[in-house]
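B., you asked whether I could sanity-check this one before it goes into the benchmark set. Here's the sequence:
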Amino acid sequence: MQPSLAFTSNSGGLSADTALRARAASHGRSPLPALTGLRFFAAFYVVLGHSLTWLSSRFPLPAFVKTFLGNGYLAVCLFFLLSGFILSYTYAGEAFHGLARRKFWAARFARIYPVYLLSLLLVLPFEIQGLTWTRAASVLLMVQAWNPLHPELTGVWNYPAWSLSVEAFFYLCFPFIQSRLWGSSWRVLLLVAAFASLVCVVFHTPIQGLGLWDPVVTGKWLPLPLLRIPEFILGMVLGNVFVRYGSISRKATLTLLAVISSILILALPIGPWVSLAVLPFGLLIYSLASSENPVTSFLSHPVMILLGGASYSIYLLQVPARDWVRTISEHFTPLGRVNVPLTPLVLILFSVLVFRNWEEPMRKATRRWLVRKAEISV
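And here's what the prediction gave me:
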């Protein structure tokens, strides 16, 4: 059965992906605005993590604050879970035949590539010196994280873009995995969720980041997407379970438990076992989707929906924003010392403008063109 959610979004076109909302609505599924609002905090957590060096050099930060900020990169794990959850929630029950798969891939490409390309163009003046044709091609094709023989390609040009290369791999796999999960019993879903969680925690997949895993047994590099796909699959399982069985509780208890557990795990010096954060992350996503409480109300506010919609740009434009703010401020002595604290504000404002005036219009235009090409090729 499909969950009947009591809340709706009045944000119009301010969601992270209006096409996904429209498709979910066509299946009789309500939008999940709180998850859009959550995306902003995940993106900003990454930005704060990258500011740790500057903050700790100027302020006497407590150890637990340093640890918490230092784990900001783990928000990428939350994004992977969210991606799997939202896509499964949106596409659950669809038959992914040949044309449907091509339309799905066209929609996903249109969703991520316009801002991806913009980020590369904006940061190009600062990276062009060390950018070879091979490196440039791998990034433009979004395969920089796929090559086990050249892991050094992963972080070139625009550093955060590596995670979009991973997402691109997930999108290729999604129609095939989703078809299997949708036809599976709840016992199979439970086993898959347990196995994916175990892999994430025991093998510490959320902390891999750009540090491609070198297994002791084989001594070979593995493509990074394969290391991170358990997080995506866990999100997919949760999305399928949510569509079938609905909420486990509409009270705020589970949401608060998930938030507190996440903060504690991220703030404690537990080394690689910070990978345990994947568990409260999953609970947080599921509880926000299925409950109606002050937390979901806050995250569903139109301002949070707008910021959540801009979160993709916030995440991907953080490097060019930092470089351009630093370069411009260096030419103005009064601003020369405030470029780092100024960057987050500039980043958020610029990302909102990009979201409204570039990301959404280009997504719609690109999607229409690609879908038309896919239909003509049949």
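One thing to flag: The first helix runs from residue 18 to 26. Otherwise nothing jumped out at me.
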